[in-house]
Amino acid sequence: MSAAAALMEPSFNMDKLSYEIFSILESKFLFDDPKFLVHATADAAPPVAMPSPRDAPSSSAGRVRVLSVDASGATDGLFAAASLARLECSLRKLSGEPSARIADFFDVAAGSGVGGVLVALLFTRGPAGRPLFSAAEAVEFLARNRRALQPKGKKKSVFSAIFRRSGDTTDRLLRRVLGDATLRDTVKPVLIPCYDLSTGAPFLFSRADAVETDGYDFLLREVCAATVASAKMRSVDGRTTIDAVDGGVAAGNPAAAAITHVLNNRMEFPFVTGVDDLLLVSLGNGESTAACGRQREARRALMSPSRPDIVKIAGEGASDMVDQAVSMAFGPNRTSNYVRIQASVCDSGRFRTVDDAGQLLAKAEELLAQKNVESVLFQGRRVSEKSNGEKLEWVSAELIREHEGRKKCPIPVVVFKQGSPRSSSCSALSSCSGSPMATASPR
To answer: Motif DGA/G, which positions (predicted)?
Structure first.
């Protein structure tokens, strides 16, 4: 079944049997007990002036807001982090709420590789029930600790980065930030993929599953290690074991997994009937371009398969394929319901040699000034008139529109599964402040 077809409902002429298979796989891990459900209310924020009117969404209740963040890419996650910081800043201005966070304006977040780490930082419950990190704190954290979260030095083989075990430095860093928080301790549903060597299939860490059973609840610090490097891990009850490697192998661009999860999760998203009822923001992490030598790198990589270049090219190609498939799935609504933020990086080698956090953040900000590139139905790509930064401004206006619309609508857009947080609190901020695609069998 094609990636585009996997995103569609029967109303989109999707093969009914394939849809039912996806539904069965997803519903196996979803609640059917109403006592665990609670209506999600609009986050506290004063009324604001609305952006220019747009055609009303297909659901009178509003659209489900989905965030997707790619694996590391050419910028080691800094471009996506900078995009989130820009988006959060814009949301604060439009809402008039200086303490607003990214998690206040999204209903579900998916992140792969370092994107999974970003999702964990932004959606883990911190003191007083608020998200642990702001986007500005997260981008600074990533810039300061990039070396601890990414492979170092030249690799001896094409697979050395993929099978890199998380070291003591990475473990200490994640433990200090996330403490003993588990998937249950996120403020909104999160989805973080890895590849499970023990089953030979992708695995999707999901808050929905964690709330349902301890067998699918994992320490967030181990989830981050699993998606950004590799880790042998157990669920909090010790029943489920996973031999995990790089989330980029399973889903470098997790947007398709996020859409599939929402479309098949009718308990938490009861009014979603198709992609028309979604607002998806997908953040890339930079990729090399043909003009900057991508074709030359591809030829060299193919002539010498041991080079790690082939992994980078394959990862970028897979992410681009998901982008095209998602764009096709949205059809005529691809420009109003789907936004892809991606950058072309000409000096990815130089980018990775910079150690100064300030210089890294400045480089990431420069990429936001690039023209946004859109996927056009059956026509490949075209350069937008707006820059990535301007596109993020437009997205923030749409998110505020949805946020304010929920205050006026008595119908709940989302009904989150609820479970008692496993940890009472997470570690204090570090110096930076200053459902399953496949499952592991319980063993």
So the answer is: 246-248
Is 48 contained in some domain?
A: no
Whether 246 is a known active-site residue: answer yes
- Which of 112, 206, 327, 344 is catalytic? The answer is 112
Q: Could you tell me the pTM of the whole model?
A: 0.77
Active site residue 237: no
Q: Model confidence over 281-308: pLDDT tens digits? A: 999 988 876 545 445 555 555 455 444 4
Q: Which two tokens stand for residue 342?
A: 């991606």
What total of structural domains would you count in the chain?
A: 1
Write out pLDDT tens, residues 178-229.
Answer: 999 999 999 999 999 999 999 999 999 999 999 999 999 999 999 999 999 8
The range of the structural domain enclosing residue 307 comes to 64-150+167-408
Neighbours of 418 (CB within 10 A): 14
